[in-house]
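Narrative of accomplishments. A recurring question from our advisory board has been how the design workflow behaves on a single, concrete structure rather than in aggregate. To address it, we present the structure tokens for one chain from the evaluation set, followed by the sequence designed for it. No filtering or post-editing was applied between the two.
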């Protein structure tokens, strides 16, 4: 994965945007000490790349900007703020550690298959999840948990008699399973199989539910 389109000054301004969220170019110049003309030029570039947006006189960082900042910065404080910003922007209910694992897995995935992050819509986390889902079994458990949470939040689900919430699907043999599940005992995870799911599907097919 290449991010060579960002030079050091671009990264510096992007880092300030992670910390400041919403700010005018004039105020950003004052806060950062970067000349106003340079700030304006960099902000225009970042906006053209979809890393920030402009609303009136103020600029704001986008989810794509937060992801890119997480990848390119060398400052741990910026990484932490970027993760927190994504957690809030994506309305993610899990932990920041889960998101860190997910972004690291995504980084490896993009680099492995030479996919540009600029081709991904980070405003919709499900689009990111859909990209990763076919290779979900290769991911670490925390990254899988992130995928499961996005799926549970987006697709229709049922509550099983056991109290678990599940998004049902069927494998190539027609056997039911939960593509994503939030279980009382096993927590949030992908590809859940249990007898309760089999019983519910059989009951529905017989018209007894």
């Amino acid at each position: 994965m290449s991010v060579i389109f960002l030079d050091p000054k671009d990264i510096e301004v992007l880092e300030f945007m992670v910390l400041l969220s919403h700010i005018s170019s004039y105020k950003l110049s004052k806060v950062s000490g970067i000349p106003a003309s340079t700030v304006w030029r960099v902000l225009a570039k970042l906006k053209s790349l979809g890393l920030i947006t402009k609303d009136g006189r103020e600029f704001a960082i986008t989810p794509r900007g937060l992801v890119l900042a997480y990848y390119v910065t060398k400052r741990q404080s910026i990484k932490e703020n970027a993760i927190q910003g994504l957690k809030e922007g994506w309305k993610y209910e899990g932990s920041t550690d889960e998101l860190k694992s997910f972004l690291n897995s995504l980084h490896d995935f993009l680099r492995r298959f030479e996919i540009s992050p600029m081709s991904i819509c980070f405003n919709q986390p499900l689009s990111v999840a859909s990209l990763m889902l076919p290779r979900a079994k290769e991911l670490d458990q925390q990254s899988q948990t992130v995928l499961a949470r996005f799926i549970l939040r987006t697709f229709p689900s049922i509550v099983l008699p056991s109290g678990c919430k599940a998004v049902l699907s069927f494998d190539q043999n027609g056997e039911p399973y939960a593509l994503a599940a939030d279980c009382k005992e096993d927590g949030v995870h992908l590809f859940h199989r249990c007898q309760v799911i089999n019983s519910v599907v059989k009951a529905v097919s017989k018209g007894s539910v």
